[in-house]
Design a protein that fits this description.
Elements lengths: L2 E10 L4 E10 L2 E11 L5 E5 L3 H4 L3 H7 L3 H4 L5 E4 L37 E9 L5 E3 L2 E5 L8 E6 L5 E6 L7 E5 L2 E5 L3 E6 L5 E6 L16 E2 L5 E6 L2 E6 L5 E5 L10 E3 L2 E8 L2 E8 L5 E6 L10 E3 L2 E6 L2 E5 L6 E6 L9 E6 L2 E6 L3 E5 L4 E6 L9 E2 L3 E7 L10 E7 L5 E6 L6 E8 L2 E6 L4 E6 L7
Antiparallel strand pairs: 1-2, 1-5, 2-3, 3-4, 6-37, 7-8, 8-9, 9-10, 11-12, 12-13, 13-14, 15-16, 16-17, 17-18, 19-20, 20-21, 21-22, 23-24, 24-25, 25-26, 27-28, 28-29, 29-30, 31-32, 32-33, 33-34, 35-36, 36-37
Length: 467
């Protein structure tokens, strides 16, 4: 098997506990070391991503022989267990789409599809990835940008996970992915690359030239595309650049706004972004066709994690402990909905569908009626707040599921009824993980990844391993 989990235990007399190590080994490369404690001491978990090329290329025997813990301390090694990568195809091809970071140009985090009736693990990809994929027409497009990999763009069959093509780009670090027209575009530190969706051939490259004052300061992970015009927008430290998807040529560039940390939202030929203008945090609207500024509005304490969302109700931003809604044409703030009890900001994601805003932070998941400015329902325990997905009838999020499951493991992917908040199903995650890809709902399937998997996984209407 290409992927293996090596679990080991040794006794720590000072802590009166047993300390375990879980090594994730992929193709003879150690990609992650996880340490945890059990016994009388408080339970603790530590995770170390292994990115040093020398370490990741060592095999298991060499690592155990050379680690400072020593072979004697690891004499309690339990076993080297094949991960048994699941490979059950989904019952049908997922026909929905999730074409960029926030699902669509407007950052709504809404997928026009239904969740599967149950959430059992169907398949895991053979390819390593920890980057959010984009999905359309039954194909998943992802990347394996990581120091221990070759930096490729990869296409997978969404139903069974089989690899369709792979193109080496030699990229690494933070990067963005999006689908536009018939292209899979990948933005990384050096360039924006457009690939043919059918075969992975490079169609064009747009270089982020480092000789330019802004060249080395691009934020490729914040790339956004307009699905109607085919214009790709890439933020950088000093502004924005718009690029034609058809040929990769620059369309316009502005230096009006700086220090952007959020993915812009695009709607009705307007780009909405949050950054700084003359030292003031601001929400800014630019014309998509020529980059001219329509309006700008100062923000008091904008979130650095909640991307702006735009719908027919307006432009949504998290400002301090409120969800602020601005008029799309003028920028005037016409509504403020209090979200949190304190003014302390935390990681937050906002999704908007119909007249409901779904807001997740680390402490709770809320469904808020926009017109009534009231909370319809809430899950008030720990939430992984860096992503959620809203479908036609369901909200899917990673939450503390202690209330719903009878296991010591608390972390779950849970599907909530979007009208009532009632739990429809949940999938319990293993105890040695951190989230690398938050759940993405595409009709009949939920895609995700954790560090203990190291690959893209999918939940669907299949029998569980215990069935």
């Amino acid at each position: 098997m290409p992927q293996t989990l090596l679990r080991c235990l040794f006794h720590d007399p000072t802590a009166e506990s047993v300390v375990g190590f879980c090594l994730h080994v992929e193709y003879e490369r150690i990609t992650t070391i996880r340490a945890y404690s059990v016994g009388n001491a408080p339970s603790r978990k530590y995770e170390i991503p292994v990115t040093n090329t020398f370490i990741t290329r060592m095999n298991r025997r060499t690592f155990l022989a050379t680690t400072s813990i020593g072979t004697a301390a690891l004499s309690g090694c339990l076993s080297a267990l094949p991960s048994g990568r699941p490979d059950t195809p989904l019952p049908a091809v997922p026909e929905g789409k999730w074409t960029q970071h926030g699902a669509d140009s407007a950052n709504t985090f809404v997928s026009d599809g239904s969740a599967p009736p149950r959430g059992n693990l169907a398949w895991e990809s053979a390819a390593f990835t920890r980057w959010k994929p984009v999905i359309t027409d039954g194909t998943v497009y992802t990347t394996n940008f990581d120091p221990s990999n070759e930096g490729s763009a990869i296409a997978l069959d969404a139903q069974d996970g089989s690899e369709q093509w792979r193109t080496v780009l030699e990229g690494d670090g933070d990067h963005g992915r999006a689908l536009v027209n018939d292209l899979f575009v990948v933005a990384h530190s050096e360039e924006l690359v457009a690939l043919n969706r059918q075969n992975g051939d490079v169609v064009w490259r747009h270089s982020f030239e480092k000789s330019k004052p802004t060249g080395s300061d691009y934020s490729p992970e914040l790339v956004a595309v307009d699905e109607q015009s085919g214009i790709v927008v890439v933020p950088h430290r000093h502004g924005l650049e718009a690029i034609h998807a058809e040929d990769g040529e620059s369309h316009w560039e502005t230096t009006e706004v700086s220090q952007q940390q959020l993915t812009p939202a695009i709607h009705n030929e307007t780009v909405y972004t949050v950054g700084r203008i003359d030292g003031t945090d601001s929400l800014v609207a630019f014309d998509l066709n020529d980059g001219t500024t329509h309006w700008r509005r100062a923000l008091a304490n904008p979130s650095t994690s909640a991307d702006p969302v735009v719908t027919e109700y307006g432009v949504f931003v998290v400002d301090g402990n409120t969800l602020a809604i601005h008029n799309r044409q003028t920028g005037a703030r016409h509504s403020e909905i209090r979200l949190f009890e304190t003014d302390e900001t935390s990681t937050t994601t906002v999704a908007v569908s119909g007249g409901i805003a779904f807001v997740a932070n680390k402490a709770e998941l809320l469904a808020v009626d926009i017109e009534e400015e009231t909370t319809k329902w809430r899950h008030d325990d720990e939430v992984y707040a860096q992503g959620l997905s809203v479908g036609n009838e369901t909200v899917v999020a990673m939450v503390d599921g202690s209330e719903y499951v009878s296991t010591e493991l608390r972390e779950t992917i849970t599907a909530f009824d979007r009208e009532t908040g009632d739990v429809q199903w949940n999938y319990v995650l293993d105890g040695f993980h951190s989230v690398t890809i938050p759940p993405i709902l595409v009709d009949g399937a939920v895609f995700f990844a954790t560090s203990s998997i190291g690959a893209l996984a999918v939940l669907g209407d299949v029998d569980s391993g215990s069935d």
